[in-house]
Amino acid sequence: MQLPLRRATAAPNLVPTRRAGPPSDRLTVLAARALGRARSLWAVTSRGPVHGLEVRGSGRGTAVLFHGFSSTGAHLLALMRELRPAFARLVAPDLPAHGLTPALPLGSMRADVGAAAILEALDAWLDGPAVLVGSSLGGYVAVRAALEAPGHARALVLSSPAGAAMTAAELDAFRARFEVPTHRSAVAFVDRVMAVGPVARHALAWGVRRRFVRPELRALLASVRPDDLFTREDLARLSLPVLCLWGDRDRVMPTAARDFFASALPPHARFERLAALGHGPYLERPGAVARRIAAFVDGLEPAR
Prior knowledge:
By secondary structure, the protein is of the alpha/beta class.
């Protein structure tokens, strides 16, 4: 589904009229800015303000990193710091209802509408094609951007991307994986994402439960329909360089989703399975993931 875009305007000093995002996300962004690790970007789009974090590097070109469901751009800071030698500029937008980007009205809180808002923000923030890096839900946004705004995309790096074709029954079963009514079920979800110590897994589970019950995120999950997902024909249209990474221990995405991307991406795409890593390899081993991305980018033609 292609949504109409209109040019957004960059607004580095914009402050939303109301506070967006949970306090923990606001504190993370404030800490990153206070430590000089990142600066905030804002864009005024037709669907509301969009927030992002920018990190400067010593390499060439720009990378845009898209986070996953219930995460934020700030959670990508470790990977962004590891990627500084490879890029001159790294940008991590907060998807609508994530981080500091306000939620869309509940009636329009949909993945495709949120992707359109992000594309408008990129129109304001980018002055040329960038390497688009997306994990999980962010992978869906990255593919959507490459298909609908090819001028923004120099190459595509995906990590366990969402958006694989599913039937209505398969989609309902996938949504059920995000039901965490108890602390025990939240701990089980954390274990499906990555391996962490006993203290960290309980702390992360507490945060997962608080995030997953937010009405706007529930609305986002409920809004996804089979025709919002990618077809094989969609992925075949990707003519730019593509690298798709998939952790061998990923237990969030169905095996069928992994097989779909492995077989449906165009022949020139590289599909690589990462040993001993789960759904969030950039959280578990940001240095290793950054080195793999940097090696992939080194093989591209020089950025203009």
